[in-house]
Amino acid sequence: MIWMVLIPFAAALACIWLHRVLRGHVAAALALVPTGLAIAVAARLPVVPGSAETELFPWVPDFGIELAFRFDGLSATFALLICGIGALVLLYTSAYMRRGPGLGRLCSLLLMFLGAMLGVVFSDDIFVLFVFWELTSIASYLLIGFKYEEQEARNGARQALLVTAGGGLLLLAGLVLLNIAARQSGLLPEQASRISVLATTDLSGHALFVPALLLIVIGAFSKSAQMPLHFWLPNAMTAPTPVSAYLHSATMVKAGVYLLARLNPVFGHSLWWHLLLTATGAITMLGAAAMAAGQTDLKRILAYTTVSVLGTLTMLIGVGTDLALKAAVVYLVAHACYKAALFMIAGSLEHATGTRDIRQLGGLWRVMPITAVCGMLAALSMAGAPPLFGFIGKELLLKAKLNLDYLGVVLIIVASLANILLIAMALVVAVWPFFGRRVSAAESAHEAPVSMLVGPLVLAVMGLFVGLLPGTFDSALGSAMATAVGGRVIMMDLKLWHGLSPSALTALGISVVSLGLGFLLFVRLRDWLMHIVVVVARLGRRGPARAYEVVFAGLLAFSENVTRMTQTGSLRRYVRVILLTLIVTVSYPLARCLTPADALSTDWFWHEILLVLLTLVGAIAAVSSRSAMSGIALLGITGFMIAILFALFSAPDLAITQIMVEALTVILLVLVFHRLPGFSLFRDRYERAIDATVAVLAGAIMAWLILATATVHLPTTVSDQLSRMAKPDAYGRNVVNVILVDFRALDTLGEITVVAVAGLGVYALMKLARKRKPEGSGS
Amino acid sequence: MNSIIFKATTRMVTPLLLAFSVFMLLRGHNEPGGGFIGGLLAVAAFALYALAFSAREGRGLLGVRPRSLIGVGLMLAITSGCLAWLTGQPFMHGLWLPLEFPAELKVGTVLLFDIGVYLVVTGSALLVLLTLGED
Predict the structure, then answer these.
(1) CA distances, B8 to each of A503, A585, B4, B5 (Å)
(2) Which structural domain, as residue segments, surrounds residue A151?
């Protein structure tokens, strides 16, 4: 499995070169990668319910984290969706983007995302899963912001990143808590982060169990766009359509649902889990369906209906009965198929007519017959009409709720309302663009090219095929997936026709009534649409999206203020702040616990006194000098004297370095000297008095500190040990150098990197200044 | 600076300084010295030359671009750390050749690292100094 995860990343890298060779054909060629992976997964079918294969590689043994991958019904189903739809999307992209720039970048990012998603669904270690989880957020950020020249795309991308990555942080906190709880409950470090082990361990008694649950659930909700964190998904529709078809129908947004499903065996028996998921899911299901009715952009309609379906799935996992989990499994797969198809069709329509506004599309079935058929099939599946896959999903959904002894009635009403709205919207998506009055945009329209038809066609036909032969899905994947989600064996027996039992007839009855009401709503919708649009837009301005905007604007204003206060650009002010900070922070602890009493009473040699005097003279002379040149030279005196002091007190390395630095500083200052403005005293007596006070205080504090440290006998175990180890372990007598290049070489590597970056930075600044000179004021 | 005495002295001193900088680099492991000090010495040698003649001639004496020195130096330092992986040791573990050179010189990845430090220091400082002095 590790290969399946790594191959897409390798392909994403290779894409950079492949794009130069293959140009327009790169997307179609790269579609072979996910196709191959899908075949590799399919070759392992059917998955026996309850069975799993595990692969382990050591990664961070100190924390007990292993690269643990697991192949079971749940991960296999998701892997098939990710690879299958990924291949179709790449194929679709090859035609969609042929003329646009950045095709190589898009393919590379799509493959990177594909690899990250596979990593999420195959990981059996919570921390490995988290790493891939965040990778999907990053890839999605880059994909949504693909058209980065457009303000709207950048905003959408940033919003998606902030919401999902913010949720990711909560998720990480939750996972860490879960890990702690598992360790304290007696699991070994390597076991405590393994999902498959956690699933069979009862942790509900631990104090951290509920906090972990809440944090993880919020993390999953942010990814799967549950209310009130749903607003990023419609705004992410600024992404190119292939990206929406892939990320926002079948994969990225389902990652949250996947996580909930995967952790259901861990948390499923908790009442918190049950209530939180059911309630949030139900609210999202209905709320998003209602908001979908107020959209005119085809992609935004699809986005809101996706949010609604994600709510349904969350709710079903929360309900957690056998029937509910079966319904979730079927509904998830059915939705992935029809929604990806519908997104691709929306892209084809935009490609052909140049608009996605539902009011400006119409009568296209003559020019785009195949697209129209695909659209009808997918929309019927979405509406839950027999004999499509979506119908089976909705029947199961209703049956699951009918079998609940409490809450069932409420959920049925909520779900039916949402369903009616979704049916109406499905009809809007499938009927308005293709039938009715032929609009002007349709004149120049044309049928989509073959590569843009394959995707919708395959997915739509798949919905029909599985709907007619549901048994194939059961035995190959369905039962195994439901078992993995439930943590107990759940065998599926999907049927189109459930016989004449009372519950089956009730479910069928509700389906039929919903379809009828949905159709009625659809008929009236054309008249009502504009009113609903206004209402939804008004609500949207006060919703959570508004809260996000306020917080974000506040953050910007805050950082602007902080920057203005701290980055004044005045060097004198910086130095003053630094010195004052030093004085305040050092003097307080010094005054409390250290007195420099007897350090001065040691014997003095005459040459030491001479050196100190010379140092002082240099410093005082430098301060009072009237020209920059002499100031530099006088400062040099102080520096050299200090170097000699170093040499006297047995720090030869330090002394040599100090001498070299002093010499080079003087050379440097001489070189820049002619660039500096003239030496002028433009500050008044008062300001200079303050500066002098700060300087004297800082000097006094430093002197005091050094005297005080001389009286303290610090433990010397570390330095003793380093001195002892230097010769036998590192073959060097000079401990200073051995520490620099061997014992603490990593630090030195960091330092020389800083030196290199600083040098390049200065160079760049000077080059930049030189380039500007001819145009600018000449300063 | 147009002084014949300065120029003539510089001509003699620069090679000596450069040789001394390499000496300091190599002896650093046992006596005061090392890549940092050696690098600064080399910078001093080139800076002196640039002062005596011109930054352009200093650059000519160097022969390569200071930027390349930085890159090569960093590469050397990182590579010396990675070599330990080949023997299954952790990053930056010191490896030594089992050979004795004169004057207690031992050759190993640590020396390679020190040479990297030497080059980075030389390259960075010269990059700034020569650019500053050039116009």
Answers:
(1) 107, 53, 6, 5
(2) 1-267
Question: Do A507 and A575 belong together in one domain?
Answer: no
Query: How far apart are alpha carbons A328 and A49 in whole angstroms?
Result: 16
Q: What is the dihedral of CA A538, A540, A544, A549, to 10 degrees?
A: -90
Mean pLDDT of A126-137: 91
Tell me which residue in B37, B43, B129 faces A657 most closely, judged by beta carbons.
B37
Same domain, A618 and A734: no
The domain boundary residue, chosen from A207, A234, A267: A267
Which pair of tokens denotes residue A345? 């069709």
Cβ-contact A158, A224 below 8 angstroms? no
Chain A CB contacts of B35 below 8 Å: 740-741
Q: How many structural domains are present in chain A?
A: 4
Give the pLDDT confidence score for residue A58 in this predicted structure. 84
Q: Beta-carbon neighbour count of residue B69 at 10 Å?
A: 25
Residues A634 and A750 in one domain: no
Q: Residue B68 carries which side chain, given as an amino acid letter?
A: S
Instruction: Give the pLDDT score at A753.
Output: 92
Of A462-466, A514-518, A773-777, least confident by mean pLDDT is A773-777
Q: Which domain holds residue B91?
A: 4-133
A235 and A320 part of one domain: no
What is the value of pTM for the model shown?
0.74
* Pair (A341, A463) in one structural domain: yes
Report the residue from B30, B78, B94 with minimal CB separation from A742.
Answer: B94
Q: Say whether A730 and B43 touch across the interface (CB within 8 A).
A: no
Does the pLDDT value for residue A670 go beyond 80? Answer: no
Query: ipTM of this complex > 0.90?
Result: yes
Q: Distance (Å) from the C-alpha of residue B31 to the closest C-alpha of chain A?
A: 5
A738 chain-B contacts, CB cut-off 8 A? 29
From the list A663, A732, A752, the residue facing B29 with the nearest CB is A732
pLDDT in tens, A569-622: 788 888 888 999 999 998 888 777 666 555 566 677 888 889 989 998 998 898
Closest Cα in chain B to A733:
B30
Q: For residue A590, what is the domain's CATH number?
A: 1.20.120
Rounded to a whole number of angstroms, the distance between the first and last alpha carbons of chain A is: 62
Q: How confident is the model at residue A328 (pLDDT cuts 50, 70, 90)?
A: confident
Q: Does A237 share its domain with A284?
A: no
> In chain A, whose CA is at the least distance from the CA of B72?
A756
Domain count for chain B, please give it. 1
For residue B74, the model assigns a pLDDT of: 93
In whole angstroms, what is the distance from residue B123 CA to residue B67 CA? 6
Residues 16-75 of B with CB under 8 A from A: 24, 28-37, 40-41, 43-44, 47, 51, 66-67, 70, 73-74
Residues A69 and A205 in one domain: yes
Cβ distance B110 to A742 less than 8 Å, yes or no, reads yes
A-chain CB neighbours of B42 within 8 Å are: none
- Cβ atoms of A465 and A390 within 8 Å: the answer is no
Using one digit for the tens of pLDDT, what is the confidence trace for B50-99? 888 888 888 888 889 999 999 999 999 999 888 888 888 888 787 877 77
B119 touches chain A (CB under 8 A): no
Tell me the residue ranges of DSSP E strands in chain B: none
Task: Tell whether A10 lies on the interface with B, counting CB pairs under 8 A.
Answer: no
Is residue A154 domain-shared with residue A292, that is, in the same domain?
no
Closest-CA distance, B128 to chain A, in angstroms, reads 6
B46 and B58 in contact (C-beta within 8 Å)?
yes
Task: Give the domain-ending residue among A681, A699, A714.
Answer: A714
Flag whether pLDDT at A704 surpasses 60.
yes
Measured CA to CA, the distance from residue A335 to residue A338 in angstroms comes to 5
Q: Which two tokens mark A612? A: 């100190």
Contact (CB<8Å) B121/A745 = no
Q: What tokens does A775 get?
A: 């145009």
Highest mean pLDDT among A49-53, A155-159, B103-107: A155-159
